[in-house]
Structure formats: C-alpha cells, structure tokens
Amino acid sequence: MADLQGICTPICTIFSADGSRIDEAAQKKHLDRLLSAGIHVIAVCGGTGEFSFLTREERLELTEMVARHVGGRAKLIVHASAVMTEETIEYAKHAEDQGADCLLVLPPYFEGPTLEGCYEHYEKVASSVGIDLMAYNIPVHSGIDVTPDFVLRLMEIDNIRYLKDSTGDFIRIQQLVNKGIRVFNGADPLMFHGLMANTTGCFWGTSNAIPEQAVKLYSLCQQQQWEEARTLWDNIYAVNDFIWNNPFNPSVKALGNLLGHDLRDCRRPVQPLTATEANTLKELVAGLSLQH
Q: Which residues touch 254 (CB under 8 Å, ≥6 apart)?
C-alpha cells in the first residue's frame, strides 16, 4: 500500500528531434532534474507525457526505463488507461511488475460506458493487481464526470485509494476533500488553493518546468507558512494560468525550454505554440523570479 502525497510530476516524454523515437538520454536527464529538485512522485505515460501519441511498445518501454531510473528515489505512478478493460489490465500488470506504487486509471473514454460500466471497469482492473489505484476525473477529455458520490463508491474497492481531479472546479475539490477522499488536484492554476483546502497532493504538469518552486510551495503549505506561500504562488501563477488556457503540452514544454531545460517539442501532429503564444509566454517568463 503506497502512501502518496506531495508534488507529482506527470513527466514529459522527450522525443528525438524528428519525433521518431524517445530520447532515452534526454529522458533520464530530465528525470534527474526532477528528482534532484525533490519531486515526491513521478508519473509516467500521463497526459503531459503524451501517452495518446505513444505506441503500445513505447508505453511499455518508457515505463520500464523510468521505473529503473527512478529506482525508489521517488514514488512511481504509471498511467495505465485504455478504452478496453483488457488492455488496461495488461498495462496495469506490466506496471506492477516494474515496481510501480500506484496506477492512474481513467474511465473508458470516447463514447464510453455509463457509470455502472465504469464501476465494472475499475473493479476488474483493481482486482487484477495488488497495488493501489488512483481514479482520474477529467471529463473534458474522457466525456464522463466521475462524481464525488461515485468516487466514494469506488473507494469501497480495497486498493482504489486516490483521485486525480482535473475539473478545474474548486468547489468540486472542496466537496471531495470534505468527503474524506484523498485528492490530487490536477488543475495547474488551482495548486495553491487546493493545498490550502487540504488536498493530499498536486498532479502538476507545470512542475516539469519549475520543480523547485512546486516543491517549495508544497513545503510552505505543509508548514502553514501562508504568507510566504502566497508570495511564491503570486510569482508563478501567471505561467500556470497560461499553460492551462493554451495548448497544454506544447506550453509545458515551451516553458521548460525557455528556462533552459531540454524538453523539446511534442510529437506531431501536435503543433508547437504559435508565434503570438510563444511571445506571450516569453513575456511572462521575463517577469518570473525563480529563486528557490
């Protein structure tokens, strides 16, 4: 049983210049930077990791490589989602074999089942492994809203212990926390507010680019040093807001690249930021004060 808390970075997948393969050396370098910053949890093959643009073989190989390289220096979550239950179970068992602490699992997406079908999906996946599961609610992409009452029902399954909520709805976050659900907030512009509301942690795509600041914010909030935490949040809020309201993965990678980290571009057909978007981000980065 994993005790997950703190900052979880859904790690960007680093591709070769032509996008034809994953660059293992660059991927490990990025992992080392996150780990040296003190990131508590690494998530592989997540949305920020462009899982939908990876082949089955790439997902398996990337999971194996990241698991080996993390080597217990942080907790490890593997995103095991697939439309078919059988395929999700395949990814889940593989992740468990690699030493993952937890699985991140979406409801079956794109014209998916009713909530009853979702329950069956989660129940079968959970029963196929002995590690923890984190349910994942992002209805804008999955087409299914995993409601607080449904989450409570899922939590009756022994090893479903967490929820990643990416609705961007602070009222929803408070409802979940108040029901005793272990919530990882997945909406970048609400990270500070989610921590103030006593979420278990943050599933924070922007932390690929600003891991030290993410870890410091969490630490300050844990110590209830609210004034210092608010000052830090005020400094980094604008880039989090930009990333949330523009093409997400290209924005995360562009921010990292601007800050001197080799995150490169997304795999095509995902496009880089437009010139206007890139210039706006550059202006926001110029206003950052990134002491840590």
A: 272, 273, 278, 281
| Fold adopted by 6-210 | TIM Barrel (3.20.20)
276's CB contacts (< 8 A; 6+ apart) are none
- pLDDT, one tens digit per residue, over 253-273 is 999 999 999 999 999 999 999
Residues 6+ apart with CB under 8 A from 245: none
Tracing tokens 């989610």 back to the chain, one arrives at: 194
pLDDT, tens digit, 9 for 90 and up, residues 83-125: 999 999 999 999 999 999 999 999 999 888 999 999 999 999 9
Token readout for 76 is 């490890």
- Look up tokens 């989450």; give the residue: 151
Q: Are 98 and 78 in contact (CB under 8 A)?
A: yes
Domain ranges of the chain: 6-210
Contacts of 151 (CB under 8 A, 6+ apart): 135, 137, 163, 176, 179, 181
